[in-house]
Write a structure and sequence with these properties.
Order of helices and strands: HHHHHHHHHHHHHHHHHHHHHHHHHHHH
Shape: extended
Radius of gyration: 43 Å
Strand content: under 5%
Distance between the termini: 165 Å
Number of helices: 28
Largest sheet: none
Structural class: mainly alpha
């Protein structure tokens, strides 16, 4: 029995071992770590991530040991602490209040503490201050882009002392270390914000770094787009990432335009981004933008999406935003065409012509045709581009030629180049007709080419120039006649008007006009007092009331501006005294420099005049000599012309 019992025990243990293995496998499958498909894979860990991960691990181990040695807490205490945390989250203040409550003394103490604990790890100092600001700026945010705040918010709401401490700390690091910390802040925002954690400390440091090192953003714009696509299901995180990109252009609108065109413009059609993108565009276009530098940023790849959003109806952009974008379009177009306009427009012409079809929306078609004519007028190389594209874009070419025919009288196109181009089109049309390769657009191109050639070869009389010259000649003849006769009475003009009958007509018209003006003047004299009395009767009380209100307003303004008046009366003499001293100093400085400058100019002028005076005298003598010869040669001809004119007037 004993032996059998032993065998039974051994067999029982073997079965239990198999069951344990199965249970262990199930537990392993249930407790295995799951991969978050939305979180980015960390390619390489920086010194910041390594330092903070080790620091958090140490904090976790300390808390675990504390729980082990200190024993468990009472359930009542845990519930009380949890309820207090919920109340704290419910009663979070605004971010403005949190920013104003950041104490510079506490910030310095935190910095000294981390320097004491980790003197050989400067990578921890920045990160520790960022975490400190995250705890201090724990607020509920409704919009991560702060639409109703200044462009440098929340940094601008921190006190100057706090900003000075942060800037001095950043200035003690090398650029390589700061770039790694910038990437660390972006990564932490991407990871922490979806979890509901505060990231306002990272925002402040991103603003500080982007102001002095905008290249941290501009050199990784494609990475920001990838992060946005990865996190676009989370509105707060994706908009925060875009907001951090825009901070690079806070001090330089050209950099802001570069970031906007590379990051926000491709996302303009998304409803989540469109309002923020248009708001950023409104902000930097209203600032002092250097259009010469901006034209290097806004090229064809950026201009044509803007063109489509502005002139294509029923697109993904809301109508109110489309109107705002349309208001900015002329300036964006001017910026795009700005740099080296005579050689830059050839880069826009092919895409403009390819988009010009008969089926495109009418506003877009009109704008494309205007841009094409503008390119042809400014850049002669566009004609060669047009000739190269003619075979494959006959429909677009016919639309453009029809437009040129319709505006022929007002367009200022180079006629020689246009004529050569249209003749080249005619040759191509003949080749297509002979080779039987023509298609449905061939006939339209052939007809409009002939019409355009006829327009260019036909002669049109310059009526405007002729009428202008004729009026100028008549006015000149009348003036000479009146001056030579000593007045209009007795002049040849009066004699000509009397003989032709125009004098009587003019005199009769003058009499009529005089009578009418006299009757109108009498009516004004009679009716003015009557209407003036009625106006005073109707409007007098309202004017008196308005004057009383203006007096009350003036009294209120005097009372309200009393502190300002006191301040000006107190400080104006001090300021004027300082200004007078500065003016005296500037005048003395200018007097010294002007005296030196006058001495140099006088000496140089004397030397130059000594050299060129013989030449000037020689030129004057030659000019007088040839002028006298010319007058002697022309005087007989002028006298003959004058005698002939006198004979003609005397005959009439």
């Amino acid at each position: 029995m004993s032996s059998s019992a032993k065998w039974e025990t051994v067999s029982h243990k073997k079965k239990a071992t198999q069951a344990d293995k199965k249970a262990a496998q199930r537990a392993l499958a249930q407790n295995a770590p799951k991969v978050d498909q939305m979180s980015p894979l960390q390619e390489s860990s920086t010194i910041f991530s390594a330092a903070f991960s080790s620091n958090s691990a140490q904090k976790g181990s300390k808390s675990a040991n504390g729980d082990a040695h200190g024993g468990g807490k009472k359930p009542g205490q845990q519930k009380k602490k949890g309820s207090e945390g919920k109340k704290k989250m419910e009663h979070l203040g605004s971010l403005d209040e949190a920013l104003s409550n950041v104490d510079v003394g506490e910030l310095k103490a935190q910095l000294e503490d981390v320097k004491t604990r980790c003197p050989d790890s400067p990578a921890l100092w920045l990160g520790d201050l960022a975490l400190f600001l995250n705890r201090k700026l724990l607020t509920k945010e409704t919009d991560p882009t702060f639409p109703d705040k200044p462009s440098d918010y929340p940094l601008c709401k921190l006190s100057g002392a706090v900003q000075s401490v942060l800037r001095n700390l950043i200035g003690s690091y090398q650029e390589r270390m700061l770039k790694m910390f910038h990437q660390h802040c972006i990564r932490e925002i991407e990871n922490d914000l979806p979890k509901g954690q505060s990231v306002n400390g990272y925002r402040v440091f991103l603003q500080l770094l982007a102001k002095d090192y905008p290249q941290f953003v501009t050199s990784h714009l494609q990475d920001y787009l990838e992060i946005f696509k990865r996190r676009q299901s989370d509105k707060a995180t994706s908009l925060t990432i875009l907001w951090s990109c825009v901070q690079a252009g806070h001090s330089d609108p050209v950099i802001c335009l570069h970031v906007w065109s590379k990051v926000l413009l491709p996302l303009l059609g998304q409803k989540m981004v469109s309002y923020y993108a248009v708001a950023v565009l409104n902000r930097f276009l209203s600032s002092n933008l250097d259009e010469q530098r901006a034209s290097q940023v806004l090229g064809p790849n950026e201009f044509f999406p803007i063109l489509d959003y502005v002139f294509t109806p029923n697109n993904s952009l809301p109508s109110n935003l489309q109107k705002q974008l349309m208001a900015h379009y002329p300036r964006l177009k001017s910026i795009a065409f700005q740099e080296h306009r005579e050689s830059n427009l050839r880069n826009f012409f092919p895409s403009l012509l390819a988009r010009t079809t008969e089926n495109c929306p009418e506003p877009l078609k009109t704008e494309l045709l205007e841009c094409l004519v503008f390119c042809l007028c400014r850049d002669p190389h566009c004609f060669s581009e047009w000739r190269q594209m003619y075979d494959t874009h006959m429909k677009q070419s016919s639309v453009l030629m029809k437009h040129i025919v319709s505006i022929w009288n007002t367009a200022k196109l180079p006629k020689m180049l246009l004529q050569e181009t249209v003749r080249a089109f005619s040759v191509t049309n003949d080749e297509l007709r002979s080779s039987h390769q023509g298609h449905k657009d061939y006939e339209d191109c052939q007809a409009v080419s002939k019409e355009l050639l006829e327009k260019m070869s036909s002669f049109t009389f310059p009526w405007k120039s002729f009428v202008s010259v004729l009026l100028l000649a008549i006015i000149t003849a009348l003036a000479l006649d009146i001056l030579s006769s000593g007045g209009f009475q007795g002049s040849r003009s009066e004699e000509f008007l009397k003989k032709s009958g125009l004098y009587v007509v003019c005199k009769h018209a003058f009499t009529k006009v005089s009578l009418f003006s006299a009757s109108a003047f009498r009516w004004v004299q009679e009716k003015t007092p009557i209407y003036y009395g009625k106006i005073c009767e109707l409007c007098g009380p309202y004017l008196v009331l308005a004057l009383d209100k203006l007096g009350d307003l003036w009294t209120w303004l005097v009372v309200v501006t009393t502190p300002l008046q006191d301040f000006i009366s107190k400080n104006a003499p001090i300021f004027l005294e300082w200004l007078l001293k500065q003016i005296v100093i500037v005048l003395q400085f200018a007097e010294v420099w002007l005296s030196h400058l006058w001495a140099v100019i006088a000496e140089t002028s004397v030397a130059v005049w000594t050299q060129i005076s013989p030449l000037v005298q020689h030129v004057g003598e030659i000019t007088l000599q040839y002028t006298s010869r010319l007058w002697v040669a022309l005087s007989p001809a002028l006298s003959d012309v004058w005698n002939w004119l006198q004979e003609q007037f005397s005959k009439t």
